[in-house]
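pls ignore typos typing on phone
nicotinamide-adenine-dinucleotide + seq
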Amino acid sequence: MRVLVTGGAGFIGSEYVRMLLGQPVYPAGPLPVDAAAVTVLDKLTYSGNLQNLAPVRKGPRLRIVHGDICDTSLVDQVVAGHDVIVHFAAESHVDRSIANAAAFVTTNVLGTQTLLDAALRHGTRRFVHVSTDEVYGSIDSGSWTEDWPLAPNSPYSASKAGSDLLALAYHRTHGLDVVVTRCSNNYGPYQYPEKVVPLFVTNLLDGGTVPLYGDGGNVRDWLHVHDHCRGIALVQEKGRAGEVYHIGGGTELTNRDLTARLLAACGAGWDRVVPVTDRKGHDRRYSLNIDKIRQELGFAPTVELDRGLADTVAWYRDNRAWWGPLKKARQ
Ligand code: NAD
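k done
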């Protein structure tokens, strides 16, 4: 099978590529998908990094195309000859979308539509659209099921919701074989150090402080990136066309709880935490019901949170050469 992975040089896309090519963060066991050849299409924005693909870059099964998913003629050439598209490429950071939403609408909505059109033209057998729990907005109690109405609150989540609906519309209108995944917050190695886990860990490893939004009571479900990719592989291979599948860890934490765990894992105390003004429109709680993927596809997370966080801290401790220059470039 020939698989095109958009955004394959980013945090989650690169784990998917490493997994397809036999070098995931944790041993994956037998995969439900085979990938004779993998093509990465990536614009290499600030969060795309070819070093994320270093463990698999030399192999003959990987081709890397540096380009934009909004570039119609390039996308047309690249999509040709692939059986499956797994679409990760996106602008992904909520805070950036609050400061400037334009790139989010362009890449997340227009870029997805450009890929969907190319998939239609070339008869791509399956289009896996990777999305997020943030499209539902915020939920005080209970958990979202896949048929829950979308009510996104940030420009990021609104642009992802738009792309989800477009992908599903191409299934209903044109019969394109589309599956959509919506996942909770990911953590793990190779995550650009602006997101909370790598930001906090690298600040703490540098002897600095960490900024905690508002009262720290916002709740998120956390899943190791490796388990997210295992879930996507199951959906790619066995998901039903036109369906949405949640992927989550079942481990909800307030930001204060998460901070406490990261402080402990880095051997630091609460004196290193600086409260900061809350993010505008900050969703209070996300919670996914993952019964569908468990029951239909047999998914279960494998990386227990404390072990995953400890391994993640160890990875950032051991890979300063990866994140040091990225943080320096941000200053
Ligand atoms: P990331 O920012 O680390 O990676 C995004 C990748 O897309 C980068 O390699 C970047 O260069 C590439 N890219 C951006 N614009 C592009 C364009 N116009 N053309 C081609 N490539 C482009 O993001 P991530 O955290 O790996 O997220 C990947 C996907 O997973 C996104 O669609 C995101 O919405 C979704 N998701 C993320 C999380 C999370 O916790 N990080 C959770 C659920 C879903």
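The longest strand covers residues 126-132. The two ends are 43 Å apart (CA to CA). more later
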